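Incident review: delayed structure delivery

Summary: a single-chain prediction request sat in the queue longer than the usual turnaround. Root cause was a stuck worker, restarted by the on-call engineer. No data loss occurred. The affected request and its eventual output are reproduced below so the record is complete for anyone auditing the incident later.

Affected input:
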Amino acid sequence: MTSHKTAQTMKPATAAKKLGVYLEATPAEFQEGVVTRDELNALQTDPPQWLRDLRRTGPHPRPVVATKLGISISGLARGGVTEALTSDEIEAIKAEDPEWLRRERETQADVRRETARLKDRDAERAAKPERAAKPSRGRRS
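Output delivered after worker restart:
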């Protein structure tokens, strides 16, 4: 008796997220079908022209927009950006350098500094030898 290995599949939205593209901008056949793990790997290693174009010019999903602007997704929402943006629109925001973007970049920098500080602190604690446990004294009656 042989076992038949079924291909692992995912919804188009999941595949688009893994590819870093905006689902609504992908071709209809991509949006309507399912994507196997092998197909996803093939798209990642040898992307077709539509995928290369989407990655270059967009529209980009919010996580990609946030990364390109150097802020968090929450910062993007606080700045009023709720839709996918093209590369040109992202560049226009960068050129304009609005107050909300400067504020969110500073917030992101603070988060990175705090993360680095905690990592250093934890590494320092791990490097120190543990103190010998003090023997507990029993209660005298």
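Verification: The helical segments are 12-19, 28-32, 37-45, 49-57, 62-69, 73-78, 87-96, 99-127.
Action items: add queue-age alerting; document worker restart procedure.
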